[in-house]
C-alpha cells in the first residue's frame, strides 16, 4: 500500500487483547505506517473487534470514501466485515506489504428523517414500534403508494447487511455486487384492512423508499441505524436510498462474499 500510510485504529480497549493490539501497532510502525490519533488525518481505518466494532468504526469516522477500511477479528472466527484475524499476522503483513491492493466496494444506505436530518447505515435501518402495540407505516416506492404496513416494524438493508438482521427474518442474502436495498417485515398484521406483500422485496439502488409513520398516537417508533438507536422521538417520514459513494475495504484472495457466506452459515 505505497500511497496509504496513515492508519487510525478503532477498538475498545480490553485487557484480554491489549498485548495483541500492541503487537499490531508495532507491526504498523515496523512497516513505516504512521499511527494517527485523529481519523480525519487517516487514509486507512482499522477496526479491531468484530462486525459490531467495524460498524461503529465506520459510523464514528463518518463513512469516509477516501479511506480504506479493514476489520481485524478478535473472536474465534473471522466475520463479515473482518477479513483478518488478530492472530494471523502473516496475512496482515502480506496485505500491508503488497504493492497493489485490491479494493472491494460496499454501498450503504442514506436515510433522511423528516426532511432534514441525514444518517447513513452500512447494515440496515430499522423502524420498530416503541411500545407493545403495533404501529402503521405507509410504504412508498418512488412516488407510488405501495402498501400500508401494520405490525412490529420494518428492516431496510444493504447487500452486506443482508446476512445480518435481515437474514434472521428470512430475507434473502444479496450479492454486494448488486446495488440494491431490501425491505423485510417484522410481524405484519394481515387482514381485510391492512395488507402487505408479506415477503421481503429487493429494490434497485436507483429507487427511493419512503416510510411514513401514521400519526395515530403510536408515532414514537424506535429507529435503528446499524447498532445505534436514533435519539429523535417523534418521527413522521423516512426517505431511504442507496449511497452514490461506497465504503472501500481490502479484497483478499479466497475471501469473496460467497465464501464468507459459506464459511459462516453452511
Ligand atoms: P450484536 O447483537 O452483537 O450482533 C448480532 C450478530 O450479528 C453478531 O454476531 C454480529 O457479529 C453479527 N453481524 C453484524 N453485522 C453482520 C453482517 N453484516 N453479516 C452477518 N452478521 C453480522 O450487535 P452488533 O455486533 O453491534 O451488530 C449490529 C447488527 O446486529 C445490526 O446491524 C443488525 O444487523 C444485527 N442485529 C440482528 C438481530 C437479529 O438477528 N435478530 C437483532 C438486532 C440486531 P459480531 O459478533 O462479529 O459483532
Ligand atoms: Mn457484536
Automatic annotation (TrEMBL):
<keyword id="KW-0521">NADP</keyword>
<dbReference type="GO" id="GO:0005524">
    <property type="term" value="F:ATP binding"/>
</dbReference>
<keyword id="KW-0547">Nucleotide-binding</keyword>
<dbReference type="GO" id="GO:0006741">
    <property type="term" value="P:NADP+ biosynthetic process"/>
</dbReference>
<dbReference type="GO" id="GO:0046872">
    <property type="term" value="F:metal ion binding"/>
</dbReference>
<dbReference type="Pfam" id="PF20143">
    <property type="entry name" value="NAD_kinase_C"/>
</dbReference>
<comment type="similarity">
    <text>Belongs to the NAD kinase family.</text>
</comment>
<dbReference type="InterPro" id="IPR017438">
    <property type="entry name" value="ATP-NAD_kinase_N"/>
</dbReference>
<feature type="binding site">
    <location>
        <position position="187"/>
    </location>
    <ligand>
        <name>NAD(+)</name>
    </ligand>
</feature>
<comment type="function">
    <text>Involved in the regulation of the intracellular balance of NAD and NADP, and is a key enzyme in the biosynthesis of NADP. Catalyzes specifically the phosphorylation on 2'-hydroxyl of the adenosine moiety of NAD to yield NADP.</text>
</comment>
<feature type="binding site">
    <location>
        <begin position="51"/>
        <end position="52"/>
    </location>
    <ligand>
        <name>NAD(+)</name>
    </ligand>
</feature>
<feature type="binding site">
    <location>
        <position position="152"/>
    </location>
    <ligand>
        <name>NAD(+)</name>
    </ligand>
</feature>
<keyword id="KW-0067">ATP-binding</keyword>
<dbReference type="InterPro" id="IPR002504">
    <property type="entry name" value="NADK"/>
</dbReference>
<dbReference type="GO" id="GO:0019674">
    <property type="term" value="P:NAD+ metabolic process"/>
</dbReference>
<protein>
    <recommendedName>
        <fullName>NAD kinase</fullName>
        <ecNumber>2.7.1.23</ecNumber>
    </recommendedName>
</protein>
<keyword id="KW-0418">Kinase</keyword>
<dbReference type="InterPro" id="IPR017437">
    <property type="entry name" value="ATP-NAD_kinase_PpnK-typ_C"/>
</dbReference>
<feature type="binding site">
    <location>
        <begin position="163"/>
        <end position="168"/>
    </location>
    <ligand>
        <name>NAD(+)</name>
    </ligand>
</feature>
<dbReference type="GO" id="GO:0005737">
    <property type="term" value="C:cytoplasm"/>
</dbReference>
<keyword id="KW-0808">Transferase</keyword>
<feature type="binding site">
    <location>
        <position position="150"/>
    </location>
    <ligand>
        <name>NAD(+)</name>
    </ligand>
</feature>
<keyword id="KW-0520">NAD</keyword>
<keyword id="KW-0963">Cytoplasm</keyword>
<feature type="active site" description="Proton acceptor">
    <location>
        <position position="51"/>
    </location>
</feature>
<dbReference type="GO" id="GO:0003951">
    <property type="term" value="F:NAD+ kinase activity"/>
</dbReference>
<dbReference type="GO" id="GO:0051287">
    <property type="term" value="F:NAD binding"/>
</dbReference>
<dbReference type="InterPro" id="IPR016064">
    <property type="entry name" value="NAD/diacylglycerol_kinase_sf"/>
</dbReference>
<feature type="binding site">
    <location>
        <begin position="123"/>
        <end position="124"/>
    </location>
    <ligand>
        <name>NAD(+)</name>
    </ligand>
</feature>
